[in-house]
Amino acid sequence: MTRVIVTGGAGFIGKEIVKKLLKKGYEVIVADNLSKSKFHQKEEFIPKEKKGNYQFLNADLTDSKSTNKLFKKIDVCINLAAKIGGIGYFHKVPGEIISENNKIYSSTFESAAKNNLKRMIFVSSSMVFESASSFPSKESDIGKMPPPSSAYGFSKLTGEYYCRAFWEQYKLPYSICRPFNAYGINEYLGKEVGDAHVIPDIVNKILTKQYPLKLLGDGNQIRCFTHVSDLADGIIAVMESRKAINDDFNIADPTPIKMVDLARLIWKMMGVKRPLTIRYVEGFKYDVKVRMPDVSKTQTLIGWRSKIKLNDGLIETINWLKSNSND
């Protein structure tokens, strides 16, 4: 049985990956410090019959000695662990983000190399495309553009450099996955504006009867939202494909939508009686205008494509957020 360690596996995307790995028969070890999760309160997503193949470890992945012990007898690492949040969070603690993420990468990559893992699956971010000027953006565009300006985007690009450097020196095989704008159930709200991602942020504003509805920026920012279930399937498909070794992939639903149109759609789905009025407020420095992926490489080489349409995924997400808004 293949043993997979999922670092950051108690987080939003990690939970979905763990659930799917267990259903597929993998032995799964989750290493997480629970800094961004209510996971310790809710493990009902783990199938009862699969709990024998599952282990949770409350771990400090910045500590290289303890991390090395976790990686013993592991076949594959899906590396999600990172300081992460919404656009407001990125602006609040940039030094902490770049410092802590670098420690996590050093610790996890060194441990993977020392223990001769078969592959490192590094989960990067669409924010590495922060400086993109060509849309939809291809994987090959990364080397043709300036590095990201935000600490988070730069830290994720640094993780991609770790992949290539550890292959060149230690022959640690890798695959890079770049999720685009994940949404879905199990993503909890932040305490302040911009701490959470945009979909739960808008839903929460409507639930708390904010009126007019405040949107950051001019509302014309373009994003492509990908359901967390699809993302998990895509990341696992990359892990299971030999064609994906030492390569990088955009994992996304490529359908674009403007933020103002997203707000209108959510407003309508939530059945608010009065007409929508929007107040545009000053956005954050690193809130880019367009983030749109080319996914043809992933579709051709891996045979994966997203399945869940935004309208369907939003209904599920809104209902879940309504039920869990006070957690």
Give the full name of the CATH homologous superfamily of the domain at 3-182 and 226-253 and 292-306. NAD(P)-binding Rossmann-like Domain
Mean pLDDT, all residues: 92
Overall, the morphology is: globular
Q: What percent of residues are in strands?
A: 15-25%
- Ranges where pLDDT stays below 50 over 5 or more residues in a row are none
How far from one another are the termini? 36 Å
Radius of gyration using CA atoms only = 19 Å
Please provide a written account of the structure.
It is a single chain. The protein has helices at residues 12-23, 64-70, 87-92, 94-114, 151-170, 198-207, 228-240, 259-269, 296-302, 310-324; strands at 3-7, 27-32, 54-58, 76-79, 119-123, 174-179, 182-183, 213-216, 222-223, 226-227, 247-251, 257-258, 278-281. The chain is α/β, with parallel strands linked by helices. It has a domain at 3-182 and 226-253 and 292-306: Rossmann fold. Strands 3-2-1-4-5-6-11 form a seven-stranded parallel β-sheet, with helices on both faces. It has a two-stranded parallel sheet with strand order 7-10. Strand 1 (3-7), helix 1 and strand 2 (27-32) form a beta-alpha-beta unit. The chain is globular.
Can you describe this structure in just a few lines?
With 327 residues, the chain is of the alpha/beta class. Helices cover 37% and strands 16% of the residues.
What tags apply to this protein structure?
single chain; 327 residues; alpha/beta; Rossmann fold; 7-stranded parallel beta sheet; two-stranded parallel ribbon; 13 strands; 16% strand
